[in-house]
Amino acid sequence: MMKIPMILLAPLAVAACVASGPALNDTVDPGVDAIVQMTPSLTFAPSDLRIAAGDTVEFRNISGFTHTVSTRPDTAAKRQTVILPAGAAAFDSGPIPSGGIHRITFDVPGTYRYFCDPHFGSGMIGTIVVAPS
Ligand SMILES: [Cu+2]
């Protein structure tokens, strides 16, 4: 029997405790190139991701908390944390509820370091490196 590589894309989804929501689907929609989970332990998983320019990342909230995906530099600490490639616009998902998703397409190559607004103080920070396509 052949192994199905698709299963490897979302191995942690089955560990979620929430009853329903798009984040718990095992399927990956066409047009989504990578998945980052927002976890109950206040982390992005993977916290370090490498993609190519033009790729779309789907952030999935598999926790019971509300998370965000943000580079909005509204405090000095956040300004020091955030990294954006020259020419890339800052982004802020706003609240992503338990079970919710948020998609971002990364067109500008370079390094992005982003955070979750409510859990910035807990170190909920992630990095995405976008290679030229
Ligand atoms: Cu969070």
Question: What would your notes on this structure say?
Answer:
- The chain is mostly beta strands.
- The chain is 5% helix and 29% strand.
- The chain has one domain: Sandwich (Immunoglobulin-like).
- The protein has a 4-stranded mixed sheet with strand order 2-1-4-5, with no helix packed on it. The chain has a 3-stranded mixed sheet with strand order 3-7-6, with no helix packed on it.
- The chain binds copper (II) ion.
- The site of copper (II) ion has 8 residues, from loops.
Keyword list:
29% strand; mainly beta; 133 residues; 4-stranded mixed β-sheet; binds copper (II) ion; globular; 3-stranded mixed β-sheet; Immunoglobulin-like
Concise summary:
The chain has 133 residues and is mainly β. The protein has one helix and seven strands.
Sheet having the most strands: 4 strands, mixed
The CATH topology assignment is Immunoglobulin-like
Give the SSE string. Answer: EEEEHEEE
Determine the CATH superfamily: Cupredoxins -  blue copper proteins
> Architecture, CATH level 2?
Sandwich
Query: If you compute it from the alpha carbons, what radius of gyration comes out, rounded to the nearest whole angstrom?
Result: 15 Å
Percent strand equals 25-35%
Bound molecules: copper (II) ion
Helix content: under 10%
**Distance between the ends:** 34 Å
**What's the count of strands?**
7
> Ranges with pLDDT <50 over ≥5 residues?
4-20
Q: For the record, what CATH class applies?
A: Mainly Beta
Count of domain modules: 1
Alpha-beta content class: mainly beta
Instruction: Identify the strand order in the major beta sheet.
Output: 2-1-4-5
Query: How many separate helices?
Result: 1
